Structures are given as structure tokens and as C-alpha cells.
Amino acid sequence: xxxxxxxxxxxxxxxxxxxxxxxxxxxxxxxxxxxxxxxxxxxxxxxxxxxxxxxxxxxxxxxxxxxxxxxxxxxxxxxxxxxxxxxxxxxxxxxxxxxxxxxxxxxxxxxxxxxxxxxxxxxxxxxxxxxxx
Length: 133
Description:
Elements: E1 2-8, E2 13-19, E3 22-29, H1 34-43, E4 46-53, H2 59-68, E5 70-71, E6 83-84, H3 94-106, E7 112-117, E8 121-126, E9 131-132
Parallel strand pairs: 1-4, 4-5, 6-9
Antiparallel strand pairs: 1-2, 2-3, 7-8
């Protein structure tokens, strides 16, 4: 079973295809085009997909994912058990929340200081007690 994860940032879009948790394909693109997406879905028999986006995903991309995969919308409401102390949850970026969840899953019960040096540099802290600051 292959899963497609898309991160649409301010500058680039990143696509990752995972098989049983292992990254098998990694692409960085300025813009996601429907033909590239369809090729990936068909080549790797993608079952599930999701998008994390700082500015929203195009309707065409979401429509393709819904038509060809089990599309699971990602939002900051997705929470596997992290207590958030973020002052304004409605303004927390999906990309930041996705990284917190990844740290929570990959390094359980460990404190993690997460630095993202993209278009904007952000710093996030996940405590060993699964509390996000």
C-alpha cells in the first residue's frame, strides 16, 4: 500500500510517496501539475493521500486526489494525542502542525526542538510529555 503526502509551501511543493512508512519517492516542484500527480498515482498505485498547505490546495489537485485515491484532508484538528499550548490554534500553520505530529510519532516521549528553515524560519517545541509550545 502506497501513500502520497503533499506539502504545499510558500516557495515549493514537496511530494512524498511512502510504503509502510518508508519514503520511496521524494520530489520538490515549483507547481504541482495534474499530469505529474496522475503519473505518480498510477505508477505507485497510491491508495491514500493528503495535503498540508500554507495557502490552500488547488481545487484541481484535490479533485484528482479524491477521484483516484482515498483522500484524507489534513488540518490542525488532526491530533494523535499532543496537548497544544499554541495561543491561537486557528492561525497555526498546517506545515508546522504536521512536523509536530511527525516528531511525536518518530520520537515518542522525547523532547524535540523543531526548526524549519523554509521561506520563514519557525521554531517549535514538543516536550517529552507530549505538550506543544
